[in-house]
Design a protein that fits this description.
Three copies of one chain form a homotrimer.
Chain A (H helix, E strand, L loop, with lengths): L13 E3 L19 E9 L5 E4 L1 H12 L4 E8 L4 E7 L3 H14 L17 H11 L2 E7 L2 E2 L5 E7 L7 E9 L1
Antiparallel strand pairs in A: 2-9, 3-8, 4-6, 4-9, 5-8, 6-7
């Protein structure tokens, strides 16, 4: 692989729509408009099998870093294959319970299940499948120092194993 | 959280494979090679329940901004929990219809459904589940000012509620 | 669309948690801390229908570029609508086989299937559905020149068609 390469003193045009406060022109050298990266690994405490709202737990871990970004993206990456991250309703706990009910109906478990991979327990193979159904990563826009989700959106950790364990999430923030 | 910090005048090496036009070396200070961010919220019109091809609607809203990026990523974030964004076939409407058929078969609805969350109507809890199955966000590579999707790929908005409503998408562009 | 715009000489604060080696302050002009983009399209060889571990194939194609990033994100984008990319268990081939079994049970195929889109063969419409279930794109954090996945995580290509074909993946790297 031969790569062409190019260097430059970076100018950082910041283009946003009206909902953003206009950045003052005489502020154009400000640190706040320079591209920034932040990355950290956070640990979520053990949760019982099921879907759990973790927005505030994650926000608490990253809000200080987040506040430095006018515009950007937050990437959350769960380093596990038997749990998942998804964005869904943030208000009624029944929605989380019903989603867990759905996952258990759709993915066979126990003696009726056709799985070859059973050494780690009857809940392990179903957990892997659920992890790929919902995914292990999320990317959320950052706007004015906050995660720019909809009114009813929240971040869920879905624990698919019977035995609760702490789960690691690599958070990467990128923006200006 | 104690963060280490570092500042520098940014050099922006641009490394791409052969399919890109080689960027001229004497052009290395050009604005086009500096990191840029653009973010806007667009509104998709109300669609009936089902899967809909929205590539051209979204492209129209962002094509002017997009044209300024040689290389980058476009992030689309649907701010709702009862609809979803996915990438799939862009030609035969039957594929969208069949996908809607699948979703309705896989997620029980109505009197036979086991849901506790029913206050917002029989289509609401199924809509939440379908939203997590397909997801509410997409990231698409940008190459030479365009979304770099495959020949047969298109962006779908999947409306999972019976009552059509306008849907908001936060689009974040990042690249050089 | 009226966009406000702003330019600046970029400062690049690099904020990371303790697990990163502290970047020396007198090294602050180093290329390694400047924002970089790299993008290339790689071809995966034809795989038979089913789930396949492709971490090492992808790593081999991008490891040289990857090694230049201290912190960033790697985006993988499959340019097809009848295959998918997912992250799951990297050790026991039974997990991949069982996941393929699950997908075939959940998505009807053949004479009992309700699909209208059948012209491209009985495996085509199921392939499209599976592609949206698992998705065609992944974003993985980069830390110290490597993909920062968990111990048991690997990248899977899931081929949903009967006839194996080569599959293109657009890889975009962004970071410092």
């Amino acid at each position: 692989m031969q790569l062409s390469s190019l260097s430059s003193v970076a100018k950082v045009p910041f283009s946003v729509k009206a909902q953003f406060p206009t950045v003052k022109k005489n502020n154009s050298m400000a640190e706040s408009t320079a591209p920034k990266w932040a990355q950290k690994t956070i640990s979520l405490p053990p949760y019982r099998r099921g879907c759990h709202l973790v927005t505030s737990k994650i926000a608490k871990e990253i809000e200080q870093d987040l506040s430095g970004f006018k515009c950007g993206l937050a990437h959350l990456f769960l380093q596990h294959t038997s749990a998942s991250l998804t964005i869904n309703e943030n208000y009624d706990t029944d929605v989380r319970d019903d989603t867990e009910t759905f996952l258990n109906r759709i993915v066979p478990e126990g003696s009726s299940a056709p799985w070859k991979h059973t050494l780690e327990g009857p809940d392990d193979m179903p957990a892997h499948i659920k992890s790929s159904m919902f995914g292990c990563a999320l990317t959320v826009p950052i706007t004015n120092g906050k995660l720019n989700m909809g009114t009813w959106q929240g971040i869920w950790l879905c624990e698919h194993r019977d035995h609760p364990t702490s789960r690691r999430v690599v958070v990467t923030l990128n923006g200006i």
